[in-house]
Amino acid sequence: xxxxxxxxxxxxxxxxxxxxxxxxxxxxxxxxxxxxxxxxxxxxxxxxxxxxxxxxxxxxxxxxxxxxxxxxxxxxxxxxxxxxxxxxxxxxxxxxxxxxxxxxxxxxxxxxxxxxxxxxxxxxxxxxxxxxxxxxxxxxxxxxxxxxxxxxxxxxxxxxxxxxxxxxxxxxxxxxxxxxxxxxxxxxxxxxxxxxxxxxxxxxxxxxxxxxxxxxxxxxxxxxxxxxxxxxxxxxxxxxxxxxxxxxxxxxxxxxxxxxxxxxxxxxxxxxxxxxxxxxxxxxxxxxxxxxxxxxxxxxxx
Length: 302
Known about the structure:
Elements: E1 9-10, E2 23-27, E3 36-37, E4 57-66, H1 73-84, E5 87-89, H2 92-108, E6 116-126, E7 130-140, E8 146-153, H3 161-165, H4 178-194, E9 201-209, E10 214-222, E11 227-232, H5 239-247, H6 259-268, E12 285-286
């Protein structure tokens, strides 16, 4: 039996010009109206950045791969070039770790999903401002896989498997690319967000047929609850500005919450929401247990 307890989502955005704009929503299968809130700026956004390291900058001048490789030399050169194009700050251990991770991802994007890498460096030149190093990477690339198929589990609300499969920009039989699989998972999350599943999660699991060199991907879907908009609040703006912004609200009260429309709204009013954390998933705060707005979220409801 499905639980009918109401749930709360809280969106927090930050801007430079306008006040706080909450949108409240309720779960689609409840009679009680929990709320969603997203909030533009009440005070100037501040960010904390670490100070620039006092040590020298590190440049990777040469990248050398060792091991038995099936990957074409042109692809290896592309990976090496991407690593040597940027400068890095100390500590050196962090530079090496990042470079090895980029090597690993480069091989995975080309089908070598179980690749293993290790590396070392040699200093080429050093002064107070700059350190130039050579990077030596041993790559055990393993088999190169193609995609055998993508399946979905527990996708009850979005049951059209063909439409879900089309969200992945890779066909069965193509090289198994980590980058393309990641894009498909992102598209899947967006699709559920358009249908009000604000707390959707998908857990990918990959199995391999080493004899046929084929990888199979299964997505275990946790749809969560579906939400509809219950009320709209605006805080921090004068009445005229509030009414103008309400007229352009992307979703009306009673409609299913749509994450894509929410993002388009922020884009359309970019001057009110410049470069703020409101565009990150972290602004979504769930209060499923309480079934009501968190303390302070009900101020100045419209």
